[in-house]
Design a protein that fits this description.
Order of helices and strands of chain A: HEHHHEHEHEHEHEEEHHHEEHEEEH
Structural class of chain A: alpha/beta
Number of strands of chain A: 13
Strand order of the largest sheet of chain A: 2-8-7-6-5-3-4
Oligomer: homodimer
């Protein structure tokens, strides 16, 4: 496991949440976000992050000063935005080198084209390794690719709380010696928050001659990532979760510098073309990560995403990580004290070093409990079949939110238990 | 040629532009747009359209009320937006049936996946027909596909002003009897504004057993389109030109209803999945055009695009077309009177029925003249090697704009001629 030198507290269930908030060094940063309803307990910042105030101001400025005012001349600076914001994210939060990250398209489209690029680079290898618990869009894209390109998916059926592990990946590689083209996993699992061992798994894949493609959607802005240090080949992710980029904000892709010119983008569009506005015959990609752009980037979404990314960069990923550990430790302490006695089980790793910034709690009636929580002003996410996912986005979630949210869940589940008992 | 019953005027070079503006039934609609610099002559609304006032207001509302206020709950209505706005565009401006158009991704990505879907539907046919003058991103994508899928591109080298014609397409089809999988062209050429005969070419392609894929980027919102009536298979386009959707606004795709379930989307992402939020195993596309969505749609860009599309729908495409003809007829009259005598030639069809809503004028020093025009407060577009493209977006361009813009061009070219003469 990649070792972390994070100083983080582990509050107990009887800690005073107001006192924890008072001692929180990141509490100040909440002022950079918009909270129109102070009573709402929002535990879904890992699905759609709250807007930074500057994102809202920036959108107004882009619309009036740039779109209306500069019109087509805005492209003089918009053209460099996918790479510039990519560098802010890549060097600030992903541990990438400059010119290795671009903001563009959706996670799905980026995942598709990087997976194809990897398969094309290993034409004689027929196997792709991923896990059954991986995020749906990654699985669906791979199924389509496997069918269209006559490849085989080796599915890891890992532990639903702790998987996939290094041993899972090693075993999968050993089942297909010399035949694995690509290993692709989520860095942090969307349901359990389990952190996959990016360093060890990347090394294993490389030893087997395979490329790796990491989906960072649930880790970027939540935990430290060191793409360059671990020699990661390819990565994608979204900016609307911990990066607070807005609904459907543009995604990003990472391609290690030395691979940018040797791999090939299957969707070769005009934004990747050298001398784009000469509009000449014959596609010839421009150097660097810009050669991997496709169509016209959405400037409104990109501007909002830049402001979201900037808050996380300013906060510093180590401080974000320390608070994420403290919030999830506190949530687990409250789970053990309040929820475990009323038929809940924990759906996330207990080891903080193996857990991202959300916590899933499981109970058979999770679906109806989620609906009741939302009606009561507490917003988590339901994840089939039995998980209530409590997203504790460190920049915008307070310890008081955690206590109120889990307290409300305890009360609703207790009431459900009482109704069950009365029906018997 | 698809016949049009448009009543349009053809102002002469000595018409009074102020009087033409006073008689313009669409002049009123200019009030729905933002004009921060009343002195700017903007002749590039076919590259990036001006913002509707409501788009700016809507963006502020989406940011504060929806993103900040509703947070993740916004998806209750955002989920249906790609299809709902697609229907507004499809039934309002493209002549499509309901549930045949969705707003999503970029033109490049949509073109790529529809082209693949078409090739996959004709696995035994090796040829794709397009033209050398087609928009670059379409050509670059096709080159990549031809290489990756071992297909051959039959390039039409059409007339630079009038091409490609029905005869060009017929000849290309006859060179490869029984072997053409796909015919793909732009409906309106981005440089010359020549309108390709969508009806006749679609019919010819079908007779040859091929599918058609039209790029509507320079026709949607400028001229009437009747996709359903002409039995068009596939189409794509952008919303940031005549549809005033904003910089990098999301694109759209059209798939004729009966093809939606028989063709296959190569990028199968979670937004196309039935019961998306069950996140189950195995991709199974949802019915209708929604099954062709891929990743998470950008909601900020989509909201702005909806407001842009709505203005064009409210104006009515026949009125837009009539004004587009009047503006371009006037521009050509001014070209003939003011520019032709000083070494310009016309780069657009003289027949209004064969011309979209922009006019290209050609001269050897077009590149430097364009730079000088922009410095003088007149914004056209340069298109290599020798075209100055005057975009006359009917909703936001006045006859006064046309007279001032072409007047400025005449003065700058006259000054250049004088400098040339002095150097000799």
């Amino acid at each position: 496991m990649d070792t972390e030198a994070v100083e983080a507290s582990a509050p107990s269930a009887d800690a005073d949440p107001a006192a924890l908030d008072a001692a929180d060094p990141l509490a100040e940063l909440r002022r950079r976000f918009v909270f129109p309803d102070p009573d709402l307990v929002y535990l879904d910042g890992n699905s759609l992050g709250r807007p930074p105030l500057r994102a809202i101001e920036r959108l107004a400025r882009v619309a009036t000063e740039e779109w209306a005012g500069e019109l087509i001349r805005g492209w003089d600076h918009w053209l460099s935005a996918p790479g510039a914001v990519g560098d802010l994210l890549g060097t600030g939060l992903l541990g990438a080198r400059p010119d290795e990250v671009a903001i563009c398209d959706s996670t799905t489209v980026n995942f598709y084209r990087l997976a194809i690029a990897a398969l094309d680079a290993r034409p004689d290898r027929r196997v792709v390794i991923t896990d059954r618990a991986n995020f749906p869009t990654d699985r669906y894209v791979l199924e389509g690719l496997a069918r269209d390109r006559r490849r085989e998916i080796e599915w890891i059926d890992g532990d639903p709380v702790d998987g996939p592990t290094v041993n899972d990946v090693r075993a999968a590689l050993q089942r297909h010696p010399g035949h694995v083209a690509l290993v692709t996993l989520s860095h942090v699992n969307y349901r359990s928050a389990a952190i996959a061992d990016l360093s060890a798994i990347t090394r294993l894949a490389h030893e087997a001659g395979a490329l790796v493609l990491w989906d960072l959607s649930h880790s970027a802005g939540a935990i430290p990532i060191r793409l360059a240090a671990h020699d990661v080949d390819l990565a994608v992710g979204c900016t609307y979760k911990y990066l607070n980029g807005g609904p459907g904000a543009p995604a990003y892709l990472y391609i290690r510098g030395d691979l940018q010119g040797t791999l090939r983008n299957p969707i070769q569009g005009w934004f990747g073309q050298r001398e784009q506005f000469e509009m000449g015959q014959g596609f010839e990609p421009t150097a660097g990560i810009a050669g991997w752009l496709t169509g016209t980037p959405g400037i409104l979404g990109l501007a909002a995403a830049e402001e979201g990314i900037r808050v996380a960069v300013d906060a510093g990923i180590d401080r974000i990580r320390a608070k994420g550990i403290a919030l999830t430790e506190y949530a687990i302490a409250l789970h053990d004290a309040w929820l475990a006695p009323i038929r809940f089980t924990l759906g996330s790793p207990r080891d903080a070093a193996r857990r991202g910034a959300h916590v899933s709690v499981r109970r058979a009636d999770a679906r109806s409990l989620t609906t009741e929580m939302i009606a009561a002003g507490v917003v988590p996410d339901f994840r089939a079949p039995d998980s209530i996912r409590l997203g504790l986005s460190p920049l915008t979630t307070s310890f008081t939110d955690v206590a109120r949210g889990i307290g409300a869940l305890r009360d609703l589940a207790t009431a459900a238990n009482r109704r069950d008992a009365a029906r018997r």
